[in-house]
Structures are given as C-alpha cells and as structure tokens.
Amino acid sequence: xxxxxxxxxxxxxxxxxxxxxxxxxxxxxxxxxxxxxxxxxxxxxxxxxxx
Length: 51
Fold this sequence. Notes:
- With 51 residues, this protein is mostly helical.
- It has one domain.
- Helix content is 61%, strand content 0%.
- It is built from 2 helices and no strands.
- The protein is elongated and about 60 Å long.
- The model has no long low-confidence stretch (mean pLDDT 85).
C-alpha cells in the first residue's frame, strides 16, 4: 500500500510566502528617525540563508 506523495519543498515555499506576508503586515513602515533601524530589521528578517 502506498500513501499519497507529499512535496515538502512546495509546502515550505507556500508557508514561507504566507509567513512573510504576515510579518510584513506586523512591521511598521520605515519613516522618520527610525527609518535606518526599521530597514535593517526588515532586511535581517526577510534575507534568506537562515536555518
């Protein structure tokens, strides 16, 4: 008996998109004196390569 195949890469890619959208909605839009800090935070949060 074989079960249905599961594409983990596709599942994770879809979830990554959903999580990124949710995080972007939670972060304030960079402006004013905090602009550099918020831009650095966004860069760190959304840059790839994290495990």
